[in-house]
Design goal:
543 residues, alpha+beta, Dipeptide-binding Protein, domain 3, Dipeptide-binding Protein, domain 1, ten-stranded mixed beta sheet, four-stranded antiparallel beta sheet, 15 helices
């Protein structure tokens, strides 16, 4: 088995590392946590661990991004972009914030909140907040922001679960959702829901103009300048409402370089302070560097291999075929390549960051069993072999290549299809695949996150969730809905475990590994914290 694993990794063309040999220099030792709850020792610093900054300077922080955003006010464009989220999180404030060190939801623009009933969430606003245009924060600003989300993001997660918002009085607002989900409170903490006023949007030229001239919001930084193709500059908001916060850097400059190695070299040379969105395999090679710090961390997203179960003409509609594929896969090798050795293979559908996580497989159950795979294929009528296609994004190629080598041992010929993003999305929604490799974020119990083949809460009609026509049933839908709506912690664990068992029994998907994010940053930098989806919080960095 070790030989096959090594062969698979070599075939993948992926760089693997010896984690035990990564220490060196004066780098603090951290841990990368795998889905089993085990830890692999490595010299990676972990985010959300440093004390808060208490000083202010006139210095400039330079952040190297992998690409330039097309908007800095995504809700007005009806879309969400990673770079937009990173930058805009410094410009706008949300009603509540999630503390990613503790997992707790904390007050922010709202001092208090309560669920009036299962679908109505009432917020009491602070009375000492000044917006970017100098006016006090009032409930009408929240109503305006959430109605923009509803109107312009009606087909995305940001807007499709909103009925609307109503001002109860000047400092109280109630948001109504289309369905019950206690974790909608967490969703409200996302950057998309940063509060703006209608007057300041109009002063910026309207919703369309504000996308490139976002002089809106009440965050710790203000927008200064966007030099197309070069940089975006922010400046510390000296009138920021939260007097407990100190922004170390007066100015933050974002630059754009698609070449990850060039971004890292900019940090080494002092031309940049942070290079975010680094490929994990590449970032791992800097773990023993004396020139930069490296952080590699999980962020609540799991990679799964989904089977097309909605098309009876496909072999993957047969439970024996799905089980055969699962038996033939070397999950340790897949996780080694997918995470560059920083995390273990998943032992559950759920990510370890889920409050309801419990391991559902033993490590022995994840062992390769080629003979069992061949027997299952024969039972399904494919004793002479099987040809199938796997769909994935281009960065999935190394992992899919490992799978290709694994499945060949069992007589399964796997064709890998990794088109560009637009073609991938079209094929994914259309169900044009046998297998599809995608990441899910189940830690937040809202409809699009919890087992995303749920049909009844996500869209009307089957086969329209990402991944195309997987499979669902009334029993699955009811249990997923119950998990989303349940407020009792013990019952949540019970429901999650039952769903995990159902996934396992019918091999509805194969659990692969936790997805990881990576960055490198200057040796004297501290305060690397995260916001939603593991994005960097640029407002908390300091020396």
């Amino acid at each position: 088995m070790k030989l096959k694993k090594l062969t698979a990794i070599v075939l993948a063309g992926a760089m693997t590392i010896s984690l035990a040999a990564c220490g060196g220099g004066d780098k603090s030792s951290g841990t990368a946590t795998g889905s089993t709850g085990a830890t692999a020792t490595a010299s990676f610093l972990q985010p959300n661990t440093d004390a808060a900054n208490t000083e202010e300077t006139d210095e400039t922080l330079t952040i190297g991004l992998s690409s330039e955003p097309s908007t800095l006010f995504g809700i007005a464009a009806g879309k969400t972009e990673n770079e937009d989220q990173i930058i805009r999180s410094a410009l706008t404030e949300t009603l509540v914030k999630k503390n990613y060190a503790t997992g707790e939801i904390e007050p922010n623009l709202a001092s208090e909140w309560e669920w009036v009933d299962g679908t109505h969430l009432k917020f009491t606003l602070r009375d000492d907040v000044t917006m970017g245009d100098g006016t006090p924060l009032v409930a009408d600003d929240v109503v305006y922001t959430f109605n923009v989300c509803k109107e312009y993001c009606a087909t995305s997660d940001v807007g499709k679960y909103l009925v609307g918002a109503v001002a109860d009085d000047e400092h109280t607002v109630t948001i109504e959702f289309t369905t019950e989900a206690p974790d909608f409170l967490t969703m409200v903490s996302w950057t998309d829901y940063g509060i703006v006023t209608e007057d300041e949007v109009n002063a910026a030229g309207g919703l369309e103009a504000a996308q490139t001239n976002p002089v809106v919001g009440n965050g710790p930084y203000k927008f200064v300048e966007w030099k197309n193709g070069q940089s975006i500059t922010l400046e510390r908001n000296e009138d920021y409402w939260n007097t407990d916060y100190a922004g170390y850097y007066k100015t933050i400059v974002f630059t754009f370089t698609s070449d990850a190695a060039a971004r890292e070299m900019a940090v080494e040379s002092g031309d940049a302070d942070v290079a975010v969105d680094m490929p994990v395999s590449q970032a791992a090679t800097y773990a023993s560097s004396d020139a930069v710090n490296t952080t590699i961390y999980s962020f609540g997203q799991e990679t799964h291999l989904w089977y097309n179960m909605g098309d009876d003409s496909r072999a993957t509609a047969d439970a024996n075929v799905r089980a055969a594929i699962d038996k033939a896969l070397d999950f340790d090798a897949i996780a080694q390549v997918g995470t560059s050795g920083t995390a273990d293979a998943s032992l559950s559908y759920w990510d370890t960051s889920c409050e309801f996580y419990q391991a559902n497989y033993t490590k022995e159950e994840r062992d390769v069993d080629v003979d069992a795979a061949k027997e299952l294929l024969a039972e399904a009528g494919y004793e002479d072999g099987l040809e199938i296609t796997a769909l994935g994004l281009q960065d999935n190629t190394p992992v899919l290549t490992v799978m290709q080598a694994n499945l060949a041992e069992a007589g399964i010929t796997l064709t890998i299809d990794t088109p560009d993003t637009a073609q991938f999305v079209e094929a994914a929604f259309g169900g044009d695949y046998d297998l599809i490799c995608v990441g899910d974020t189940p830690a937040t119990r809202i409809p699009p996150n919890v087992m995303p083949f749920l049909q009844t809460l996500n869209v009307e009609g089957p086969g329209m969730v990402i991944g195309g026509p997987k499979w669902t049933s009334d029993e699955f839908d009811s249990k997923i809905t119950a998990l989303i709506t349940e407020s009792d912690a013990d019952k949540v664990v019970e429901l999650a475990t039952e769903l995990d068992e159902m996934v396992k029994a019918d091999t509805i998907c194969s659990n692969l590994y936790p997805e990881m994010k990576a960055a490198v940053y200057a040796k004297d930098l501290k305060g690397y914290n995260t916001i939603e989806r593991g994005f960097i919080d640029v407002t908390t960095l300091y020396k």
